[in-house]
Specification:
Distance between the termini of chain B: 16 Å
Strand content of chain B: under 5%
Order of helices and strands of chain B: HHHHHHHHEEHHHHHHHHHHHEEHH
Radius of gyration of chain B: 25 Å
Structural class of chain B: mainly alpha
Helix content of chain B: over 70%
CATH superfamily of chain B: MetI-like
Distance between the termini of chain A: 76 Å
Helix content of chain A: 40-55%
CATH topology of chain B: MetI-like fold
Largest sheet of chain B: 2 strands, antiparallel
Number of helices of chain A: 16
Strand order of the largest sheet of chain A: 6-7-8-3-9-10
CATH architecture of chain B: Orthogonal Bundle
Largest interface: A-B, 33 and 34 residues
Oligomer: heterodimer
Number of domains of chain B: 1
Shape of chain A: globular
Structural class of chain A: alpha/beta
Number of strands of chain A: 16
CATH class of chain B: Mainly Alpha
Number of strands of chain B: 4
Strand order of the largest sheet of chain B: 1-2
Radius of gyration of chain A: 25 Å
Shape of chain B: globular
Chain lengths: 445, 573
């Protein structure tokens, strides 16, 4: 094996596209990326940016539509035998004991029984699971289960250890402990692994663990920037240096408020990109706006809000995106500030909120498009399936379904749309079918 | 657990008739035609075996019956692994196999019995022909739900478990043993139990089948019961029934229950509140030193060797979806060949059908109507008694727990075993065989409904029951707003299965050999039996096809739709 420049993995213009009917959707666009020996790389991005897909392409579980994956300088064909994955859902076999789960990877490689057992027991010992060899995964806590996941991955002594959001299904305490233990194993050189790739949407986690963070964006999935993290280990979350790095990453991810025509996008079918509605509930959005309204100057660090509201960064970024889209907030350099409209919304009564929300929703091109469709339809109503198929012009089927859900839930809250679950019919609320709209709230008994 | 799991079979969500169904139906017609064509050479007269009524002969008869069931089940499992895996791994195969399985699942299998028996006895020696026919028949009744279950579980294995198997390089064999089989274990097991329960019904029918000069009986528990009924020997009848119940109970206690309790480990996650299945037999086996020795000294090392040998032979595939394209091209060739053969067969079948005079075709219409009427009557009667009784049992958890084993034993006694015994009693009732046939259908079908009603009642959330109690609903409102809507999905599922059973029963219920003479009534089942007796092969094909088409059409156009509505609107999850 040659060791060119110490580069373990190299991706050259890797793209992933899906064909859906006549349209092609780009999940990943021209990704260039490399992982060097001795490096702990964090791959960070909002959900839907294709970071898990990228991990599957790097390990060979999935072939990319375009581009090249090199491992130690030669093209990767099929599954990479030098890689192992720790999965978000742990992916342990529930019917095998802890020890059997670790052994199975060795058995598949033809390691004889005695050696298998010795190695498995030693590894379980290393991750602190001695005494649990004969337990079944379901008897263990989430954190312990993920330790089995780590032990199994390390059993095959991979050169490249891939972690697919391994801590996101764990409670806060177990996740902290496990992160520290992983870091200990890695920095002390106790495992033969040459490089670690961590996929996560948790900004703090990436900054805590990685030597380098690669930031991805969605629509289409692409690498937007890279950030070396030169803080020495052990890193302290409360230190100002740590906070400033996290803040910078938030700034990279949350983007800036754009001019209105860019911000809103275009209607489906029109030239230009249709802006996907962030999948959030109005309840959570109201919660965020109320929280902001209670702060001095009605603005805050996104990073701080995430810990104050105890929601994960991915969810928070989606809420911020929605607030921005509706004109309730502006975002700049990782800070979010309420607009006067946002403040009015936060202070308003339930009915007034609906009215404000309705007037803002009506501005969205995607909503205008839907409303025009419905107005042209017989009795101003259409089957949900019909609208979903129309949305599939712009979005992949799963996303189109999510968009429709969000449209309906926003439209229902705003009392702009009606939806009958049994007939699956979406209709315009008759009282507001014109362009007035001020009568929305009052028209209801 | 038993009530809910055993009978809560989700139906495919498709409805209506598609091109795949058409292919499946034409294939069936061609197969039937092939059978009928062979049957032309069937001997005019077939002598059945002599059945001894001595209780001492019962163990022998019981083991013969059991062996037939086991052989058919083995065939079913092999078919399941082969066909289900094919459907799950190849898109092309999936497109044809799924509708085929779906149609075959809803076809009244018993209507094939005459064709299968006749064609087999044309080409095989008598003893072997009837044996094989019975095994084929039981196989066709057992296999479809197993194949579906296997296919469904293969396609629902969590992606990450699949990916883990791939990244840790489990080869074909290890994937089967460590991932696929354990993942499917529980549903395969429950479906096996259902298949066995259904299989007894067909076994008994196959063992006692006689038409005109042709006596297709097989030595076994079914023919023993029939002979006892013919001779009016009450004590022999009781001996026979006792043996049957004993056999079924022993199987339940020594095979199924231990397996279910053992299979608990294959649950994907532990759901709180559900009491785990227990089995005294399994507990005894776990404590037994002999079993322990067997496991550690024989089974484990042998499995280890087998694994090692097979791992060496099948090295890990490098892709998750390896080899699919190559295989599907071969499948295409196979498909084209089969298509040509099918077209030829269809033409020949049509030619044979054209021999059926118009008057005969016309006579099938009232026959069909009569059988349909009986099926519906049996359903209505079953619904009328099972709903109140089922709700009563289901809303009393302790009664339900106490009744479960009893009801299960009662339900597992195949109705066909009781036919000979009951016919004599029912024949003398007003309405004769025409009414008696309804009773016989009812016998086999009511249990499905009862089980489903009990399952549905126990599944109603406590909160809702408390709410209706707090709101002081009267009985009418309680039934209208809570019980009936909540039961609807279960009732439809139960009725769908029950209707299938009733159509099947019509073959043996509408035409009865009794006291040396045949009694029959108007009905498609009777027409099929008569055509078999008379050797009227075009009519046999016509009647069988008519029945198959009617049932499939009813299934798709009525039950499926009802089922979807009930599932979408009334299921409480």
């Amino acid at each position: 094996m040659t060791n060119r420049n110490g580069t373990l993995v190299e991706l050259r213009r890797v793209s992933q596209r899906y064909q859906s009917g006549e349209r092609t959707f780009t999940a990943l666009r021209e990704i260039d990326l490399s992982i060097r020996e001795g490096e702990f790389v964090g791959l960070l991005g909002p959900s839907g940016c294709g970071k898990s897909t990228l991990l599957r392409i790097i390990t060979g579980l999935q072939a990319s539509t375009d581009g090249q994956v090199l491992y130690r300088g030669s093209p990767l064909r099929g599954i990479n035998p030098h890689a192992a994955i720790v999965f978000q859902t742990m992916a342990l076999f529930p019917w095998l004991t802890v020890q059997q789960n670790v052994e199975i990877a060795l058995k598949a490689r033809g390691v004889p029984r005695e050696e298998r057992a010795t190695r498995a027991v030693a590894l379980l010992d290393k991750v602190g699971l001695d005494g649990f060899e004969s337990a079944y995964p379901r008897e263990l806590s989430g954190g312990m289960r993920q330790k089995v996941g780590f032990a199994r991955a390390m059993a095959v002594e991979p050169e490249l250890l891939c972690l697919d959001e391994p801590f996101s299904a764990l409670d806060v305490l177990s996740a902290d402990t496990l992160r520290a233990e992983l870091l200990e194993l890695w920095t002390s050189g106790a495992i033969p692994t040459r490089a670690i790739l961590l996929v996560t949407h948790n900004i703090e986690e990436a900054v805590f663990l990685a030597d380098r963070v690669i930031v991805m964006e969605k629509d289409p999935g692409r690498v937007v920037s890279e950030l070396p993290i030169e803080l020495p280990h052990p890193r302290h979350r409360r230190s100002p240096e740590f906070a400033s790095v996290v803040d910078r990453v938030y700034g990279l991810l949350a983007g800036q408020t754009q001019p209105e025509h860019v911000e809103l996008g275009t209607a489906p079918g029109e030239p230009g990109r249709t802006r996907a509605l962030p999948h959030i509930t109005i309840n959570d959005l109201s919660g965020l706006l109320e929280h902001l309204a209670g702060l001095p100057r009605s603005e805050a660090d996104l990073y701080r809000i995430a810990s104050e509201l105890k929601i994960d960064s991915d969810h928070l970024l989606r809420l911020a995106e929605a607030a921005e889209l509706l004109g309730f907030a502006t975002i700049a350099r990782g800070d979010i500030a309420l607009t006067p409209l946002g403040e009015t919304f936060a202070d308003a009564s339930i009915l007034a909120r609906k009215e404000i929300f309705a007037s803002r929703t009506r501005r969205l091109p995607i909503y205008r498009w839907l409303s025009a469709l419905l107005q042209a339809a017989d009795r101003q109503q259409l089957k949900a399936g019909v609208i979903q198929r129309a949305l599939e012009i712009e979005f992949p089927p799963a996303e189109a379904a999510r968009q429709l859900d969000t449209l309906v839930s926003w439209g229902r809250y705003a009392e702009l749309l009606g939806y009958d679950d049994s007939s699956e019919l979406i209709s315009l609320e008759s009282a507001v079918s014109g362009d007035g709209g001020a009568a929305t709230a009052q028209s209801r008994p | 657990m038993g009530f809910v799991r055993l009978f809560d079979i989700r139906q495919p969500r498709r409805g209506g008739l598609g091109p795949g169904d058409l292919v499946a139906l034409v294939t069936l017609a061609v197969l039937l035609y092939g059978g009928v064509h062979l049957a032309l050479d069937a001997p005019r007269r077939i002598d059945g075996p002599d059945i001894s009524l001595a209780p001492g002969a019962l163990p022998w008869y019981a083991s013969l019956s059991l062996a037939r069931m086991a052989a058919a089940y083995l065939l079913s499992i092999l078919f399941t692994f082969a066909c289900g895996s094919l459907a799950a791994s190849s898109r092309t195969a999936e497109r044809f196999l799924l509708p085929a399985l779906d149609v075959l699942q809803s076809v009244p299998i018993l209507s094939f019995l005459p064709v299968v028996l006749l064609s087999f006895s044309a080409v095989l020696p008598q003893g072997v022909a009837a044996e094989l026919a019975s095994i084929v028949l039981i196989f066709t009744s057992q296999v479809w739900n197993l194949t579906f279950a296997w296919y469904q579980s293969l396609t629902t294995i969590p992606t990450e478990l699949r990916e883990a198997s791939a990244i840790f390089r489990l080869g074909r064999w290890m994937r089967f043993r460590v991932l696929e089989l354990p993942f499917a274990a529980i549903t395969l097991l429950w479906n096996s139990m259902m298949s066995w329960a259904g299989g007894w019904f067909f076994l008994m029918a196959a063992e006692i089948f006689t038409v005109g000069e042709r006596d297709f009986r097989l030595p076994g528990l079914g023919s023993y019961l029939k002979e006892a009924a013919r001779q009016g020997d009450l004590s022999a009848t009781l001996w026979g029934l006792g043996t049957l119940v004993l056999l079924i109970t022993v199987l339940d206690q020594l095979v199924w229950r231990p397996l279910v309790a053992w299979a608990d480990r294959f649950k994907l996650e532990s759901v709180g509140g559900e009491t785990p299945a227990t089995s005294w037999a399994l507990r005894a086996a776990k404590r037994s030193l002999a079993v322990d020795w067997l496991r550690n000294r024989i089974v484990r090392p042998m499995l280890e060797r087998l694994d090692a040998a097979l791992i060496a032979r099948h090295s890990a595939e490098d892709r998750l979806d390896g080899g699919v394209t190559r295989r599907s091209r071969r499948l295409w060739l196979l498909g084209v060949g089969a298509g040509l053969l099918l077209a030829y067969g269809a033409v020949r079948a049509a030619m044979l059908l054209s021999l059926v005079p118009t008057a005969e075709w016309a006579s099938l219409v009232p026959a069909l109507a009569a059988t349909l009427g009986r099926v519906l009557a049996a359903l209505v009667i079953a619904v009328l008694w099972t709903v109140p009784v089922g709700v009563w049992i289901g809303s009393r958890p302790r009664v339900a727990a106490a009744m479960q084993p009893m009801v299960q034993v009662a339900a597992s006694v195949p109705a066909t075993a009781l036919f000979p015994v009951l016919v004599s009693a029912l024949l003398h009732m007003p309405g004769g065989l025409s009414a008696a046939a309804i009773g016989l259908m009812l016998l086999g079908t009511q249990w499905y409904l009862l089980f489903n009603v009990i399952a549905g009642t126990t599944a109603i959330p406590r909160d809702l029951q408390y709410t209706t109690a707090l709101l002081q609903f009267g009985p009418v409102d309680r039934w209208r707003t809570l019980l009936l809507p909540a039961l609807l999905p279960y009732l439809v599922t139960g009725a769908l299965t029950a209707a299938g059973g009733a159509w099947n029963a019509s073959i043996v219920a509408e035409y009865v050999e009794f006291g040396g003479q045949s009694v029959h009534t108007v009905g498609v089942g009777a027409r099929i039996a008569e055509a078999t007796a008379a050797g009227d092969y075009p009519l046999l094909l016509a009647a069988t096809l008519t029945m198959v088409l009617t049932v499939v059409a009813f299934n798709r156009l009525l039950w499926r739709r009802l089922y979807r509505v009930a599932e979408a609107r009334f299921r409480i999850d």
